[in-house]
Write a structure and sequence with these properties.
It is a single chain. With about 250 residues, this protein is an alpha+beta fold. The protein has 2 domains: about 80 residues, Orthogonal Bundle (Arc Repressor Mutant, subunit A), CATH 1.10.10.10; about 140 residues, Chorismate lyase-like (Chorismate lyase), CATH 3.40.1410.10. About 30% of the residues lie in helices and about 30% in strands. A hairpin with a 2-residue loop joins strand 7 and strand 8.
Length: about 250
């Protein structure tokens, strides 16, 4: 591939990495991350030089340098002075906490798990949802599922997923596997946060859970990250009368 061909390909990939609302350095990071995750750039491959990125994308050297510095800090690439920038060696990920798969929990209790998919699509995130946009950017995959234990709905899972971390998310059959199961395989979790609170469900959540609007619900807000960035933001709503939380922490 000639230099001009390579620069045209970089420009095309950059255009696909996000809209104008995404900062330029972040779009460069997404471009590089997507190429590595798709195995188009593999361990040991040399990346284009800063000069090639600048020429192909029409961005400043400062913007390119910031993107590459942050990718280096994330452990995705390594930079060798006077030599070039290379795809880093793959590291084994060890989860820092346990995120249990609801299907496994139900099966362990001797009951049957099934899922109904209510919504599965790519969406532009509402600008008023600053928490989501700050975590995942202006666009994400969105799924809404109801998990059943035998015939009782016990969880509404409302999840937004980063486009680059799980590019085939919309192609999955979430009646046969859970989003947790799929995301754990394609983007192993290295960090997460939980917020747990008692709430009243929305009218739609109560309808899906077949409960009265006055029944308290247990809400878990969860954000997860892989080694290369944010993976998903989930809102998990459980009827208070049908659920309890059990946790295992530490090694």
């Amino acid at each position: 591939m000639t230099t001009s061909d390579g620069e045209r390909e970089l420009a095309t990939l950059y255009a696909e990495a996000g809209g104008d609302a995404v900062p330029a350095y972040d779009r460069v990071k997404k471009l590089v991350t997507a190429q590595i995750r798709a195995d188009r750039w593999v361990e040991g491959d040399q990346l284009p030089s800063e000069h090639q990125f600048v020429a192909a994308l029409g961005l400043s050297r400062m913007t390119i340098n910031r993107a590459l510095r942050e990718l280096t800090a994330d452990g995705l690439i390594v930079r060798q002075a006077g030599v070039g920038t290379f795809v880093a060696a793959t590291k084994k990920s060890s989860p820092l906490f346990e995120v249990r798969n609801i299907a496994d929990e139900i099966t362990r209790r001797g009951h049957r798990h099934r899922t109904e998919v209510i919504l599965l699509r790519a969406e532009i995130i509402d600008p008023t949802h600053t928490f989501l946009r700050e975590t995942l950017g202006p666009k994400a995959f969105h799924s809404v599922l109801v998990h059943f234990e035998d015939e009782d709905p016990i969880q509404v899972e409302d999840r937004y997923v980063d486009l680059t971390q799980a590019p085939d998310y919309l192609a999955q059959d979430f009646t046969t596997l859970t989003p947790n199961d799929y995301l754990t395989r394609v983007a192993p979790l290295t960090r997460g946060e939980h917020v747990v609170e008692a709430v009243l469900g929305s009218a739609e959540e109560c309808r899906l859970l077949r409960i009265d609007r006055a029944e308290p619900c247990l809400l878990i807000r969860r954000r997860t990250w892989s080694a290369t960035g944010p993976v998903s933001v989930a809102r998990l709503v459980h009827p208070g009368s049908r659920n309890r939380l059990e946790g295992v922490f530490g090694n």
